[in-house]
């Protein structure tokens, strides 16, 4: 690809600006660990919301989303339920408030407020650290694959390298360089640098998204889109199977559908909904999303920050995704079809950018996608070392070191996590395989223990440890011995293993001590099976009130899921010029927004001091 001076200037200017902002604000992070990892709890909720949305706008996920929209049409909006995307609604409605009341630095430290400091509490604490580090490594490998596929298609230089008998292909070299560049400013400035650069990157990405959508709408007509897709491509409701037949239009797409395992989409959506409820009730995994929640000033701010995340993330992201998919369908698909053979659909996004966009816009899009990559990756590089430094080194190895010493150790931990993630990335075949493993297998092992910790007073640290360990074992066995089995279908087995580990580990050991349970319940006040603890707590804190919000929270979650889906669907219908779908989406968006304003936002509260 031949870059113009304008495009090169935009890209280089963006990279320099990101690094300068990261270093400029880094002085504020070096006071202590609280400042380094949580911004000293002084960051405004709306900056954290923009940062969180920016951090979720990753390039690997964008490439994957372009691919599934290209292949499955509007029905593809259901496939991200694999994560599930609406776990953010659970966090928004009640989970963020529960988490923020704990006043801790990491998810592992939070666990000690629930299970105490006895042997069971320590085991639960250690297993959370292990999970946080494993998931961070998995995501870094995921980013490594995505940015490599993107960069090798866009940039013209061959960076392949041979060292002895080892040959490193060009896309791995590009990925390594970009990961190293982002790590540089993250380890220097911690959460302050991450949030400051991510807010800037959010605006870069938004400009890029709107530009792509505008370009697609001015260069592709609705008639051309209709001619490029099979019947049913514009339908949103998931039938029992996809009912899409690309025969005669683009035959290789049928092979892609069979390979993905998404052919029976209706059955898949039901399984994803079942999985999603449990996954969302478990709360955010110990990572960057939880760090944003813990970084807010108050529990109410944590809830508002989580709500803002969906609002700022999905409309611009899906403007870009749809614009790129439309350009791919009309202009790129004929070229790919003519080439014959196997098609790597994950390269549709970089192919469109490489061949379709004009000077100037190309530079803006590339800067926006680099921003998407850097913001998401930086969030993980900031969150994972917190567990190593705060929960391992400070707690078990050197509890009396200086703040400067802890921050230096965090630098080493960040670099180590990135190196291991890169090594794993070398052995990952595709973005889709990593996505499915992380969402269905690895997170499947997380669910059982983390649902029980919220809703059942009798659950203890031993149950948590054995439940998490059984889940991790199940996901690892699947990854090593059944790599070709669709992960979503393995989820119930992994969930069963984790549930057995949780209940047996819990019921064969003694409960958590009353002092820990009462203090946790007083601060967090979850709903669920907490009556024995509530009754004991009332004797010490007579003014203590019970959380009776389960019904309202459940209703708000259902409304919130619809609200979030409208934020995704409306931009798609706008770009493809299906105005009936756009109008219905916008009406639902207004109705659900009004309901959430009066039934959620106006009723967010913290509990009375006790």
From TrEMBL:
Alphabetical keyword list: Cell membrane, Ion transport, Membrane, Sodium, Sodium transport, Symport, Transmembrane, Transmembrane helix, Transport
Lineage top rank: taxon: Bacteria
Cellular component, GO, one term: plasma membrane
Originating species: Sunxiuqinia elliptica
Reaction it catalyzes: L-proline(in) + Na(+)(in) = L-proline(out) + Na(+)(out)
Membrane spanning residue stretches: 6-25, 45-72, 78-99, 123-145, 165-187, 199-217, 262-282, 318-336, 364-388, 409-428, 434-452, 464-482, 488-508, 555-576, 582-601
InterPro entries, A to Z: Na/Glc_symporter_sf, Na/solute_symporter, Sodium:Solute_Symporter
Protein's recorded name: Na+/proline symporter
Gene3D superfamilies: Sodium/glucose cotransporter
GO MF entries: L-proline transmembrane transporter activity; proline:sodium symporter activity
Membrane topology type: Multi-pass membrane protein
Record keyword NADP present: no
Record family assignment: Belongs to the sodium:solute symporter (SSF) (TC 2.A.21) family.
Pfam short name (any one): SSF
One of the GO BP terms on file: proline transport
Predominant subcellular localization, coarse grouping: membrane
Localization in the cell: Cell membrane
């Amino acid at each position: 690809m031949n870059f113009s001076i304008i495009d090169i200037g935009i890209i280089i200017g963006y990279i320099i600006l990101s690094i300068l902002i990261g270093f400029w604000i880094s002085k504020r992070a070096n006071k202590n660990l609280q400042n380094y990892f949580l911004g000293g709890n002084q960051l405004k909720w709306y900056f954290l919301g923009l940062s969180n949305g920016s951090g979720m706008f990753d390039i690997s996920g964008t490439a994957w989303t372009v691919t599934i929209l290209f292949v499955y049409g509007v029905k593809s909006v259901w496939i991200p339920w694999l994560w599930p995307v609406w776990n953010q609604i659970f966090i928004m409605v009640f989970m963020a408030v529960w988490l923020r009341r704990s006043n801790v630095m990491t998810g592992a430290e939070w666990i000690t407020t629930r299970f105490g400091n006895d042997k069971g509490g320590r085991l639960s604490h250690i297993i959370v650290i292990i999970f946080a580090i494993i998931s961070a490594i998995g995501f870094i490998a995921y980013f490594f694959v995505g940015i490599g596929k993107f960069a090798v298609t866009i940039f013209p230089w061959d960076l392949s390298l041979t060292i002895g008998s080892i040959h490193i292909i060009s896309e791995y070299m590009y990925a390594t360089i970009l990961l190293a560049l982002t790590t540089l400013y993250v380890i220097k400035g911690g959460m302050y640098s991450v949030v400051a650069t991510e807010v800037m990157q959010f605006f870069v990405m938004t400009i890029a998204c709107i530009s792509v959508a505008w370009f697609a709408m001015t260069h592709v007509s609705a008639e051309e889109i209709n001619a490029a897709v099979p019947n049913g491509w514009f339908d949103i409701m998931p039938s029992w199977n996809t009912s899409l037949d690309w025969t005669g239009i683009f035959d290789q797409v049928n092979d892609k559908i069979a390979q993905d395992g998404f052919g029976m989409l209706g059955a898949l959506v039901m399984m994803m909904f079942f999985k999603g409820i449990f996954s969302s009730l478990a709360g955010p995994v110990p990572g960057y999303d939880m760090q944003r929640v813990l970084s807010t000033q108050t529990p109410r701010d944590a809830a508002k920050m989580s709500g803002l995340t969906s609002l700022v993330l999905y409309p611009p992201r899906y403007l870009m995704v749809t614009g790129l998919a439309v350009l791919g369908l009309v202009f790129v698909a004929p070229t790919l079809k003519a080439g014959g053979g196997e098609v790597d659909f994950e390269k549709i996004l970089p192919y469109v950018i490489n061949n379709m966009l004009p000077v100037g816009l190309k530079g803006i899009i590339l800067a926006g996608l680099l921003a998407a990559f850097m913001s998401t990756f930086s969030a993980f590089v900031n969150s994972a070392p917190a567990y190593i430094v705060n929960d391992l080194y400070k707690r078990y190895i050197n509890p009396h070191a200086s703040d400067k010493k802890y921050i230096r150790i965090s630098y080493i931990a960040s670099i180590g996590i990135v190196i291991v993630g890169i090594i794993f990335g070398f052995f990952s075949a595709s973005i889709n395989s990593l996505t499915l493993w992380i969402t269905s297998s690895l997170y499947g092992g997380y669910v059982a223990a983390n649902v029980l910790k919220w809703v059942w007073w009798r659950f203890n640290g031993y149950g948590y440890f054995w439940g998490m360990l059984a889940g991790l074992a199940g996901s690892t066995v699947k990854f090593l011995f059944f790599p070709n089995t669709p992960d979503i279908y393995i989820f119930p087995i992994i969930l069963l293993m984790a549930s057995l580990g949780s209940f047996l580990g819990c019921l064969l050991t003694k409960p958590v001590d009353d002092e820990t349970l009462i203090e946790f319940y007083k601060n967090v006040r979850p709903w669920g099976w907490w009556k024995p603890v509530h009754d004991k707590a009332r004797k010490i804190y007579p003014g203590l009130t019970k959380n009776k919000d389960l019904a309202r929270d459940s209703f708000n979650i259902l409304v919130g899921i619809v609200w979030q889906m409208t934020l995704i669907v409306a931009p798609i219908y706008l770009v493809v010029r299906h105005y009936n779908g756009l109008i219905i989406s916008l009406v639902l968006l207004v109705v659900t927004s009004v309901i959430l304003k009066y039934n959620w936002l106006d009723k967010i509260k913290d509990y009375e001091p006790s």
